[in-house]
Amino acid sequence: MMYLAGDICKSRGEHERALEYFERGAALNNGMCLREAAEYYAKPCESNKRIPQDIQKALRYYERAAISPDYLDFNDHAYVTMQAIILRTLNIDGQSQDWSRIAHLLQQPAIYTLDAIWPYLAYVFTFKKGNTPAIRTAIECVNKASKCFDRYGSYDYADHLWQLAAGYCYEIGAITKEPDLDQAVTFYEHARESINRLNTRNDNWLVLVSRWQFLTKHLND
Question: Which among 50, 75, 167, 192 could disulfide-bond with 187, CB atoms 3.0 to 4.6 Å apart, if both were Cys?
Answer without folding.
Answer: 167
